[in-house]
Amino acid sequence: MEEVKLTSLVRSSGCNAKLPPGDLHKALDNLPIKRSEKLIEGFESSDDALVYDIGNGRVLIETVDFFPPMVDDPEVFGEIAAANAISDIYAMGGNPAIAMSLMCFPSCLDISVMRRIMEGAIRKCDEAGVVIAGGHTLSDREPKFGLAVTGFADKIWSNKGARPGDIAVLTKKLGVGLLMTAHKAGENDAKEAIIQMRTLNKKAKEAAEDLDIHAATDVTGFSLMGHGYEAAVASGITLLIESDKLKFLPGAEEAARFGFVPEGRYTNEDYLEDKVDVPESLPLYRRDMLFSPETSGGLLLFMSPLDAEKYLRRFPDAFIIGKAIEKEGKSVRVI
Amino acid sequence: MKELDTSGYSCPEPVIMTKKALKDSPEGLIVIVDNRASKENVTRYATALGYSVETEEGKGNWKLKLSK
């Protein structure tokens, strides 16, 4: 059978395929969800995963994430989908342990493609110390893959503990959504974006283990602005983003200038427009870079200036994006 | 001026179509777009290439006039 390009089968890809946050809130807000005493983080919070008290000071953390391919190589897609799904466990300060796979697979593809996606996922899971213990497969016109991952922790990092004075640190560069859109148009090989998406947030998390992390999340489809907003609202602070401190993957700026901007950038901005403060003077391409979806993005960590200094020494890929201040006007302010 | 209809296509397709069409008519082009992302992205692309863009709103679509 002729090799079919994975990305030619999908309309949108990666975390860009997420339903816009505005629609999601319309559908899900105020549902009659029952509460469980043991559920520490559940449906009502916008945290990255559920957290369940299993006693003896231990918690179970569970998350699910799946999406259509953004690359043609099935193994690389499997690696990216696994790294992205596992990331939510790291974002909660947990150690991932077991996973179930979710696969949607088109009949036009050779079945060996499915095997290669799984091989990629297993390789990434091995690296994270995760065992895939089963899964579920559907026949679908568009391929999609991801994992439901379970992890454990003694102490969790939620997204609601950021305090005024905290430094906000991001552990991966921005610009994946822009570069992958340019890549889809044949304008960019997106090599560095692909490397970054395949990279687990394991080391980023481990470097922070003995520090006092006040709040954490990971930056994916809702963009730096969206995930920063969620953490700021949950924490009751204002996140001040210093735009000249942000780091972007090479080529991201050019992709934005030439209109290779993912659709999710616009739906993210529609949802956040009245909730965040972005100066009119900020160049359009910078605005694109702030609101564009990321796939398998970095951890956004809030900690004291002293801990931030220690952390940046241990994990030099990370960089400061700004700080938490007393709530003042909008929840996110870009300067 | 030549007209290019990108209705029904989602990004980055309309930008790719515009790029190809501008190769054939570098002096200018009218591009029909039917969603906000395409409108914004085609405008960014044309502006980056030094075209000026006039936008006219229609029923459920926009007409972008790209000229040098």
List keywords for this structure.
heterodimer; A: 335 residues; alpha+beta; Phosphoribosyl-aminoimidazole Synthetase, Chain A, domain 2; 2 domains; six-stranded mixed beta sheet; 11 helices; 34% helix; B: 68 residues; Translation Initiation Factor IF3; four-stranded mixed beta sheet
Mean pLDDT of chain B: 93
- CATH fold name of the largest domain in chain A: Phosphoribosyl-aminoimidazole Synthetase, Chain A, domain 2
Helix count of chain B, per DSSP? 2
Taking all residues together, what is the mean pLDDT of chain A? 93
Compute the number of strand runs of chain A.
13
User: What's the story with the biggest beta sheet of chain B?
Assistant: 4 strands, mixed
What is the assembly state of the chains in this entry?
heterodimer
What is the CATH superfamily label of chain B?
Answer: TusA-like domain
Give me the strand/helix succession of chain B: EHEHEE
Low-confidence stretches of chain A: none
Strand order of the largest sheet of chain A: 8-11-7-12-9-13-10
Q: What is the third-level CATH name, the topology of chain B? A: Translation Initiation Factor IF3
State the CATH architecture of the largest domain in chain A: Alpha-Beta Complex
Helicity level of chain A, as a percent range? 25-40%
Supply Rg of chain B.
Answer: 10 Å
H/E series of chain A:
HEEEHEHEEEHHHEHEHHEHEHEE
Count of discrete alpha- or pi-helical segments spanning 4 or more residues of chain A: 11
Estimate the global geometry of chain A from the Cα principal axes.
Answer: globular
3D shape of chain B: globular
Query: How far apart are the termini of chain B?
Result: 12 Å
**β-strand amount of chain A:** 15-25%
